[in-house]
Design goal:
The protein has strands at 6-13, 20-24, 36-44, 50-57, 63-73, 78-87, 92-97, 103-111. The chain has 115 residues and is mainly β. Strand 4 (50-57) and strand 5 form a beta hairpin.
């Protein structure tokens, strides 16, 4: 991946639509490497556990791999995904919450510089 700048890809409250596109990688770099690499956190703002689903999808929205599938976030707790997630050109991070307004998602990382 061509060196890029660190950025915030997404920060907000998840809806209950599990197919919402949260991050979309741009066109693939000419060397075929990842377009975006990131980490994420999910914070539960409520007094009850809430489920989160996050997945990597292709440009058409078909799931390629689940990162978290109806994963429970305990009440008033935060889940930190510290492993790097890579999106290739055109791929998306999709997902949502099982309970509306309960979960905040923050996605930060590096986007490949255009060459």
């Amino acid at each position: 991946m061509a060196i890029g700048r660190r950025k915030r890809f997404y920060s907000g409250t998840l809806s209950t639509t599990l197919t919402t596109a949260l991050v979309t990688a741009g066109s693939a770099p000419s060397d075929g490497s990842a377009k975006a690499s990131f980490h994420f956190t999910v914070a539960n703002k409520t007094g009850s556990a809430a489920n989160v689903t996050l997945a990597v999808a292709d440009s058409g929205g078909s799931v390629l791999a689940y990162l978290l599938n109806t994963f429970p976030i305990p009440a008033n707790d935060t889940y930190v995904h510290s492993d790097t997630v890579d999106l290739m050109g055109g791929e998306k991070l999709i997902g949502g919450a099982g309970t509306g307004s309960a979960l905040d998602l923050n996605v930060t990382g590096v986007e490949a510089a255009d060459s």
